[in-house]
Amino acid sequence: MTSSLGDANRLELAATLWDSEADDTLVCRAVRQETHDVKTFVLTPATPGRFAYQPGQFMTYAFEIDGETIHRCYTISAAPTRPNAISLTVKRVPNGPVSNWLHDNLKPGISVKALGPMGSFTCFAHPASRYLFLSGGSGITPLMSMARTYHDLAEPKDIVFVHSARTVTDIIFREELELMARLSPSFKFVPICEAANPLAAFSGLTGRLSLDQLKLIAPDFMSREIFVCGPPPYMAAVRKMLEETGFDMKHHHEESFNFETLSAAEQAEAIEGEIALDAPDAVRTFKVEFTKTRRSIDVPDNMTVLEAAKRAGMRLPSSCTQGLCGTCKSKKISGTIEMHHQGGIRQREIDAGMMLLCCSKPTSDLVIER
Ligand SMILES: Cc1cc2nc3c(=O)[nH]c(=O)nc-3n(C[C@H](O)[C@H](O)[C@H](O)COP(=O)(O)OP(=O)(O)OC[C@H]3O[C@@H](n4cnc5c(N)ncnc54)[C@H](O)[C@@H]3O)c2cc1C
Ligand code: FES
């Protein structure tokens, strides 16, 4: 009796929306083993609260690992239709510092710091009656969030969900996707396995996604809104395939999990920087010193610190490169900057001397703790 009253209170309290500006702490409540190298971590606010986000969006987390704070982005694999908890679904990356730490250390009761939700890769921004979701490996997470959302909303959406995995035992969320396909006649799930697994039978499609396979799975794919997420070579192959068939790429949307991929904004900035470098008289150059790596570089006043550091061969953490995700957040020890962020840093962090390297240009010499 007491416990059910307690649960009712929890639900009532949870009517408050979680605001990552005001509170950045989330608590791990459950861990699920999805495949041999993929786990899902379920998180809630420390005091009950609801999350509001669009399916396909991600959060940026700050993890304390061996005395160092490391930032990474993870898609919300849960659906906003079940707003009391979010989840992240993480694949181990061989020797990857964060994914392995999460698998080995994040357990119920442990808190993590999070910022978000953020990102524009969402079906809500591109309403359509027929979708084609193409995913590879852990790139399934944003598409799973979208599929779960439409399923819960009982929206009459016609969705074809194609997932490419290495072997049958690598298919993430297989049972749930098969169940959704059984329950909804307008939802089709097609896994494709690259290689056979001698320990697990699979009678579905094999190899890498080809145009012939796509025509077989979704003969009307040319008139669908297409969302793609997976490893960069997979996404490049899909892009090429669609372009070659004359697909109208306005209806193609993709998300990359790869830190090194340059965004259009970053490319434009790089070109701008190159022009500036060719006309050195037109720009001023400042000295930027990184204390931890003991590097010192020259940064033109019209180039971001991150871009200049990349050109100097430094590997600094970054993701969105647009001041959104907070991955490149660093402590500024001295100097002045011009920063144009898009929510990836809080005012109180700026007041405490933090900056985002990807969207800050120097206005004096700088010393940065990195
Ligand atoms: C928008 C977005 C959504 C994502 N969603 C998911 C998801 O749903 N599931 C999932 O499994 N992955 C997701 N990722 C990838 C995830 O953020 C991590 O890159 C991945 O888990 C591997 O991290 P890692 O540290 O283990 O491995 P690494 O491959 O070593 O790290 C990835 C990158 O981080 C940098 N890096 C490496 N070491 C360090 C270090 N010590 N300090 C700082 N930076 C370092 C490097 O630039 C490297 O390329 C997403 C990425 C983005 C950008
Ligand atoms: S890389 Fe995302 S805020 Fe800088």
TrEMBL record:
Any Pfam family: Fer2
Record-annotated 2Fe-2S ferredoxin-type domain positions: 286-370
UniProt keyword annotations, A-Z: 2Fe-2S, FAD, Flavoprotein, Iron, Iron-sulfur, Metal-binding, Oxidoreductase
Cofactor(s) for this UniProt protein: FAD
CDD domains attached to this UniProt entry: fer2, FNR_iron_sulfur_binding_1
InterPro entries assigned to the protein according to its UniProt record, in alphabetical order: 2Fe-2S_ferredoxin-like_sf, 2Fe-2S_ferredoxin-type, 2Fe2S_fd_BS, Beta-grasp_dom_sf, Cbr1-like_FAD-bd_dom, FAD-bd_FR_type, FNR_nucleotide-bd, MRET
FAD-binding FR-type domain sequence ranges: 21-124
PANTHER family for this protein: NADH OXIDOREDUCTASE HCR
Family membership noted in the UniProt record: In the N-terminal section; belongs to the FAD-binding oxidoreductase type 6 family.
Protein name according to UniProt: Hybrid-cluster NAD(P)-dependent oxidoreductase
Source organism of this protein record: Devosia oryziradicis
